[in-house]
Amino acid sequence: MKAIITGATGMVGKGVLLECLDDPRVEKVLVINRSELGIKHPKIMELIHKDFSEFSSVKTELSAYDACFHCMGVSSAGMKEEKFTELTYGISEALATTLFSLNSKMVFTYVSGSGTDSSEKGNTMWARVKGKTENMILNMGFKDAYAFRPGAILPERGIKSKTQLYNVLYILLRPLFPLMKRMKSVTTTSILGRAMINLYFEPQDLKHLEGRDMNWLGEP
Prior knowledge:
It is built from 8 helices and 9 strands. It is an alpha/beta fold. It has one domain: Rossmann fold (3-Layer(aba) Sandwich), CATH 3.40.50.720. Strands 3-2-1-4-5-6-9 form a 7-stranded parallel sheet, sandwiched between helices. The longest helix is centred in the middle third of the chain and has 22 residues. It starts with a strand and ends with a helix. The model has no long low-confidence stretch (mean pLDDT 92).
């Protein structure tokens, strides 16, 4: 399997990347970033792309891949709905549309969030926008597509969040990690990555996956 990963400079995307590098079933990984990742590995190809509002200009580099793990995202804190929609739905649509035109048999996995609103009509702005994004991807027509809805995600393998406050919280909570991992709603960066990879090889009827589903699919 040859996979594309977005958001590999973030906590979730890096977790997925590390699992891909370790898994012998994954032959090649293309990471799409705005800045260099800083990881060298025989499997990794890196595409520095500054404008995520369009991907048509890099179509040649995106061809011949089997899966896309779309892990990039932004916080809605302090953001107007129009801007959050542009950075969430707009980027995802540009990426998915381009990839679908190249390979409709691709498996596309999108990292959304627990509480996402599939009706697109709820009172919570971020949940509506992510619900709209999920619906667009799931209905695009790919061979298969999934929406991951993690709640709490615990970092593993030395991974850190890009949000400093979260890193402080993880340090404080680390003694409780063993207990937290027993909770169905809690997953880890490693489990999430393995779940994505396993879904490519073992398709599931369930398209919206919560923490407990990821834990089952990504268990060692």
